Amino acid sequence: LTTPDMKGLKVLVTAGGTREPLDPVRYLSNRSSGKMGYALARAAVRRGAQVTLVTAARGREAPAGVRVVCVETAQEMHRTVMELFPQQDVVAKAAAVADYRPREAAAEKIKKHQALLVLELERTPDILAALGRQKQPHQTVVGFAAETGDLEANARQKAAQKNVDLLVANDVTMPGAGFDSDTNIVKLVYPGGAVVPLPCLDKLSVAHQIWDAVLQLRRAGRE
Ligand code: C5P
């Protein structure tokens, strides 16, 4: 039996890879499966939290007792998350949000007339950075970083730049880690520079470790 040590906490989790339309039949996306975000939602609800899951993942059954909001694009996720943020105590941004989207989605299906097709992409809003800027003292923001090299250096830089309380970093090139895997190998990176490496664990166990770290941070913040 799990202790309800997150009772009374309002938790928002994002999951999945956003899809950015290119034309009526195509989109740009990434390899995110949503598994880590869903595991976080499941673990938090078991521990008694009031959980909202903002998800771009498809074909994945939401854990019972979780309020689910489905989104497609980075823009929609941004709007939804910013609207819900003021009511939350904790936000964990496990979603793989597209960094770029097609500048314009074509109204008609793009035809294969050209030998070389150039797409113009523009930046999407960085939701995590926006949360970091608006964060109130009672709110805890957890970011994620999928990296393919220089994991710790990139993660430390991100934790500081985005003003998060905790950054969960994973090297997605490691076997047993990252996208679509049932297990994950992460490092908990604190903005002060402390790094706690976790062993290879199933994603539900990783989720519980992340919530343990969040509760510890919140307890330390109250002292
Ligand atoms: O900078 P990078 O994209 O690697 O940071 C990853 C973290 O930032 C993740 O928590 C992801 O959900 C979040 N993110 C975001 N909005 C973006 C890009 C990333 O919230 N446009």
UniProtKB/TrEMBL annotation:
Reaction equation(s) it catalyzes: N-[(R)-4-phosphopantothenoyl]-L-cysteine + H(+) = (R)-4'-phosphopantetheine + CO2; (R)-4'-phosphopantothenate + L-cysteine + CTP = N-[(R)-4-phosphopantothenoyl]-L-cysteine + CMP + diphosphate + H(+)
| Described function | Catalyzes two sequential steps in the biosynthesis of coenzyme A. In the first step cysteine is conjugated to 4'-phosphopantothenate to form 4-phosphopantothenoylcysteine. In the second step the latter compound is decarboxylated to form 4'-phosphopantotheine. Catalyzes two steps in the biosynthesis of coenzyme A. In the first step cysteine is conjugated to 4'-phosphopantothenate to form 4-phosphopantothenoylcysteine, in the latter compound is decarboxylated to form 4'-phosphopantotheine.
Q: In which pathway does this enzyme or protein participate?
A: Cofactor biosynthesis; coenzyme A biosynthesis; CoA from (R)-pantothenate: step 3/5; Cofactor biosynthesis; coenzyme A biosynthesis; CoA from (R)-pantothenate: step 2/5
Q: What is this protein called?
A: Coenzyme A biosynthesis bifunctional protein CoaBC
What is a GO molecular function of this protein? Answer: FMN binding
Claim: Membrane is one of the keywords in the record: no
Which E.C. number(s) belong to this protein?
Answer: 4.1.1.36, 6.3.2.5
In this protein, which residues make up the domain named DNA/pantothenate metabolism flavoprotein C-terminal?
6-216
- Note describing how the cofactor binds: Binds 1 FMN per subunit.
Quote the range of the complete protein represented.
178 to 400 of 400
Give a GO cellular-component term. phosphopantothenoylcysteine decarboxylase complex
Task: State the Gene Ontology BP annotations.
Answer: coenzyme A biosynthetic process; pantothenate catabolic process
Q: Which domain of life is it from?
A: Bacteria
Q: Which cofactor does it need?
A: Mg(2+); FMN
- Protein residues bound to CTP: 99, 109, 125-128, 144, 158, 162
Keyword set, alphabetical order: Decarboxylase, Flavoprotein, FMN, Ligase, Lyase, Magnesium, Metal-binding, Multifunctional enzyme
Q: Where is this region: Phosphopantothenate--cysteine ligase?
A: 11-223
For this chain, the family text in UniProt reads: In the C-terminal section; belongs to the PPC synthetase family.
